[in-house]
Design a protein that fits this description.
Blueprint (H helix, E strand, L loop, with lengths): L12 E4 L3 H5 L4 E5 L6 H16 L3 E4 L5 H11 L4 E4 L13 H10 L1 E4 L11 H12 L2 E4 L7 H11 L3 E4 L10 H8 L3 E2 L3 H9 L10 H9 L3 H10 L4 E2 H8 L3 H13 L3 E4 L3 E4 L1
Parallel strand pairs: 2-3, 2-6, 3-4, 4-5, 6-7, 7-8
Antiparallel strand pairs: 1-5, 9-11, 10-11
Helix pairs in contact: 2-3, 3-4, 5-6, 10-12
Length: 280
């Protein structure tokens, strides 16, 4: 999903448990975002929705910030579901520090990811940047509660840019934490009328699984021409640059480039930013 976006991270560091189905699109990911200063209404509905999503087989993605993010992770974990936290720090830095216990729970039951290397401390510009990853890896984004100046609205804008569905919890005009949500609704976001209504809408999303089935992959690999097989074997399961593949195969740049193009068309290899390649 991230590779579909205009600004995918060149690398993602992670801690926790990787589930291949999430990366392949067979397990849908849904982002939940909102203000750090959530009302009881916002917290309650976040817990209710994240619990329902977990029980329905969705993986919940959020940013492990205070407020809505924390409630989204907790509701999912308590329901026995999978959750992914996208951090604006290194994956070994807990921020805010009070979420240390939540961080440990996520490691045991989900995944923590970041585009920033280990030991990277919190830095204000990192958090709007990480919001594009939340939006990019999610099939849909739910904004629970957000004032008119909120990082959650940045996530919603990224979601729109990436052609993701955006759902919004309606709130009161008397609650300034809901004014950003009401603005999103006026601009075309889908209003949530209840949990069943939300699950029905999410269930209508088409499943994404464009990768060949395992048997087809086996046949493709078995039928590779020798020059393609040599490049395929060189890549293995690592991410390699064009130069590294050339060195490992002792082929010319033109030969390697031609082989990589053919492998891409067969669905066996994907190109990453920076002319780097990995197996699909």
């Amino acid at each position: 999903m991230l590779l579909e976006t205009a600004s995918p991270p060149p690398v993602l560091y992670y801690r926790g448990k990787v589930v291949v189905a999430e990366n392949q699109g067979t397990t849908p990911l849904v982002g939940i975002v909102g203000t750090r200063h959530a009302s009881e209404y916002g917290k309650r509905w976040t817990r209710n929705i994240s619990t329902a999503l977990a029980k329905s087989g969705f993986t919940v993605v959020s940013g492990m910030a205070e407020g809505i993010d924390t409630e989204a992770h907790l509701g999912c974990l308590e329901a026995g579901g999978r959750t992914i936290a996208v951090l604006g720090t290194g994956v070994d830095v807990v921020y805010p520090p009070r979420n240390k216990e939540l961080y440990q729970q996520i490691l045991s039951q989900g995944l923590v990811v970041s585009e920033y290397s280990t030991k990277t401390p919190p830095d204000r510009p990192h958090f709007p940047q990480r919001n594009r990853i939340i939006a990019g890896m999610s099939r849909a984004v739910i904004v629970m509660e957000a004032p008119t100046r909120s990082g959650a609205l940045i996530t919603a804008r990224f979601a729109n840019d990436f052609c993701r569905d955006v759902y919004v919890l309606p709130g009161s005009l008397d609650n300034e934490r809901s004014l950003g949500c009401l603005e999103l609704i006026s601009n075309g976001a889908t209003i949530i009328l209840g949990i069943e209504h939300l699950l029905e809408m999410l269930g209508a999303m088409p499943q994404l699984d464009d990768s060949p089935p395992p048997r087809q992959l086996e046949l493709l690999q078995a039928d590779l021409a020798p020059e393609l097989k040599q490049v395929w074997d060189a890549i293995s399961f690592n991410v390699l640059s064009m130069d590294a593949i050339v060195q490992q195969t002792n082929k010319s740049v033109g030969e390697v480039s031609s082989a990589l193009l053919q492998l891409e068309l067969m669905g066996l290899v994907v190109q990453l930013p920076g002319m780097r390649y990995q197996r699909s």
